[in-house]
Amino acid sequence: MSNSSGWVVWVVWAALGSFCDAGWAGDRLLGFGAAESQAQRALEASYDALLDPADLERWMRTLSERPHHVGSAHGQANVDYLAGLFEQWGYQVRLARYDVLFPTPKRRRLRLLEPTSFEASLDEMPIAEDQSTASDEVLPPYNAFSPNGDVTAELVFVNYGVQEDYEQLERFGIDVAGKVVIARYGRAWRGIKPKLAADHGAIGTIIYSDPADDGYARGDVYPRGAFKHPSGVQRGSVMELPVFAGDVLTPGVAATGRARRLDVADSPVVAKIPVLPISYADAQPLLEALAGPVAPADWRGALPITYHLGPGPAKVRLEVEFNWDRVEARNVIATLPGRVIPDEWIMRGNHHDAWNHGAGDPISGLVALLAEAKAVAAQFPGPARTIVYAAWDAEEPGLIGSTEWVEEHARELTRKAVVYFNTDGSGRGFLRMGGSGTLQPFLAQIAADVVDPQTGVSVAERVAAWVKLNGSVKQQAELNERGVLRLAPLGSGSDYTPFLQHLGIASANLGFGGENAGGSYHSLYDTFAHYTRFGDPGFHYGVALAQVAGRATLRMANAEILPFDFSALADNIESYVDEIAELVEKLREDTLERNGMIDDGTFRLALDPREALGAPRREDPVPYLNFAPLHNAVAALTSASAAYGDAAAAGTLDDRRRTQLNQLLFKSERTLLDERGLRSRPWYRHQLYAPGYYTGYGAKTLPALREAIEQREFDAVDEAVRRIAGTLDNLTGTIESATKLWQVDAGN
Ligand SMILES: [Zn+2]
Q1: How far does residue 428's CA lie from ligand 1's centre (Å)?
Q2: Which of 416, 439, 445 is nearest to 338 (CA)?
Q3: In this predicted model, what pLDDT tens digit does every residue of 494-539 receive, in sequence order?
């Protein structure tokens, strides 16, 4: 997955740490002594010399030659090809196979019945200049995990179909109950759109890409430019990923042959109402047939029509039916055993399945991973810790291959997995990183070491320069005052989710983007020809990505002391608590203001009269909330982290204690899990990071607390505060144990 709007969520990026003034080059690497740093840098130089853009191009050409969704013929050919490459380079290769539900379309039909008639084409046009688009193996546009359905009703335009859009419709007095809604792509994980539509009583959802967001209003369309062809459609899953990831029939357990399975009808994550994605060419006649109020200014897209909200007189019939088949998902797992500490695993993954040719998503990230694996295997001596490369299947329908593997190996991973580094579709421009707070200084040091192919400065400096010009006020202030940009927290949208949010394995997601905007995502046009013209011509950023992710893997694999940093984490947590306190204050003021307007009768004057048609409701005042346990837990964590830093700077370790310390360091992320999970979604156990229940891709930090407040469920706040504070106390205990392992000379 990892879509272009998903990128925007973590544009915030990364940690510049204190390296702005320090100048790392030639200095010690985090986790290494002085002599060992030199040896590691020499190893990285020989590693860099083996990265060849011609390899990336050749692998992409082969892997994206034909459509290769899970269960397809070319998907199987790619698995064999990948396994062959890893074997040739000396890896121990295993295929991990799961039996997973993967619906494919049997019947798709969409007609406008009134006031005029029109039948949507629902198909994407082949393009003469791009041979791939003529393939007869293409999976037609659909949303996986829509239920079967045949619904006829009046149409309502709901903008992006997110919560605030329904609040706006309510002010217009428009009810979507019993209607079919048409929403544009963007602003949230697509699965949220049918979920919210169904919550409001709608009986069907149509999703389209508006040219304002993804089409001619952004730039020339394919094949002249990179942007969405008028017939282009974004496919994608609409399962309720914020509830759990993986096979929809086997939540929490591996989808092996003997697993107990739910009936499709009982799976809580299959969408409740039929959903179909369409192109803007197909959407225009539907939107044009709507009457009712003119859409608010910020709801209007770039089609040459006046956007109306409806309902009706446009009436549509939407028919979808699917083959509810189980197919075999096949992950390729390639292992290079560690020389010294084989039971500590550094994990690095990218998915291999695509909706169709998938040159951008996911092959652009996968070819970087292959380049890394080839160059890593050529290093002598081999890595101290075990390195595991994974090419995941069935990511697109719901992070299925990775999640089933994680669920099958949960116990072993809990004991052995040090870290998981993920990539997915990647482009060119700016390094984007998100991840666990403990990894912030480590990743910042790497970003300072890798040179941007276009500008010649480090990839970190390039991001810093961007923030100085375009960053938010808060980002600029942090950069100026402290030389620090925070590592963005992870929400969801790619295969790090089961590692981080289900098992508590420290994770990061890495990629380049920002200068490869375009509309090929999940469409017929995500091809080799498109990617090599508009994505990353020459594969220079593919090589840069292999330099970043390869350093991350190799440094973790060889570090004497694992470079996890608790002070960075504590500082980030404190900022999350501050953000939530600000959120509460804002909510309190807004509520008082709204209720005050109702009481003194100025409400109608204060708003655009057209928006005030619906009667405003009085809201309960926001109570004063007790965050004291959280503040105390953060204070204790901060001082324990500082004490650990002092002990590590001054202390020494014998081999036995070093082994114990490294175990405590990488298992520290596990202490941030609560075994009971988040409310109404127990699969998600991490107390710091989760995808938003109502936003999907974007991260919610301290999710139990933040979402209770956002949903105005103030009764749930005390319990959320207590649980989060409890996990922070567990982490503080782990850090104190780690501090005691350092032997500090009393004379120091
Ligand atoms: Zn992807």
Answers
A1: 16
A2: 416
A3: 999 999 999 999 999 999 999 988 899 999 999 999 999 999 999 9
